[in-house]
């Protein structure tokens, strides 16, 4: 007992404050990493690597030379497999880090184009009118994250936001009706764009391709997405991977104003500093 106490005492005497900080940071980073990947396929590979690591250590302890050699090489292949096989998950993980509070600190001064009251009013009005005729629509409102990759898939419009133009774009059997419209600031930037679908397998079967595409782009960016269902005419909005359904014209306007309120405050703050 005394030997154990002496060992513990000597351990804490050698331990420095930087060592404690180092251990805490590793613990926090490991926890956050596991939290991010727990709902993805990557967690299964992590479990597999953990088993290989345990077998590797046991083989080293038991002096099983051949098994130890095989496990060591298997670990190296496993690390390479993470990069190659789970490239989409790794990309999604890095995007989540970029959208975190720490990542947003790096956006200082980058500036975003604010969605003004007129643009929000016109988008809300268009959604309401399209809802009445059960005309499917997908409107993506860009915020801090630029959507250059998505914009490249569409047709440049570069026109002021208006409900009439939005309604006309989504008229069935027209060239641009089946894609998404990208709103940048107070302008319709591009139409007919293709969006990435969500990888969430727990969604209701009621949700079609439009809703899944809306969730996909809201997971990959900070965009605000307005959806009008072609089957039911119901209006929904997707923000940060969360879908809010069955909105009225008024509740949609409230949701959009709330989503862009902090964005506009940030833009005004940095403009006032210039």
Global Rg: 25 Å
So what's the overall shape? elongated
Low-confidence stretches: 108-113, 266-274
How many DSSP-defined strands?
Answer: 7
If helices are DSSP runs of H or I spanning 4 or more residues, what is the number of helices? 11
Mean pLDDT: 80
* Strands ordered across the widest β-sheet: 2-4-3-1-5-6-7
Percent of residues in beta strands: 5-15%
Structure class: alpha+beta
For the report, how would you describe the main beta sheet?
7 strands, mixed
Helix-strand sequence = HHHHHHHEHEHEEHEEEH
Helix content, binned percent: 55-70%
Between the first and last Cα atoms, what is the distance in angstroms?
A: 67 Å
Question: Could you please describe the fold and organization of this structure?
Answer:
- With 274 residues, the protein is α+β, with helices and mostly antiparallel strands.
- 57% of the residues lie in helices and 14% in strands.
- Strands 2-4-3-1-5-6-7 form a 7-stranded mixed beta sheet, with helices on both faces.
- Strand 3 (180-184) and strand 4 form a beta hairpin.
- Helix 3 (42-61) packs antiparallel against helix 4, helix 7 packs across helix 9 and helix 7 (117-132) runs antiparallel to helix 11.
- The protein is elongated, with a radius of gyration of 25 Å.
- The termini are far apart.
- Mean pLDDT is 80; it is low at 108-113 and 266-274.
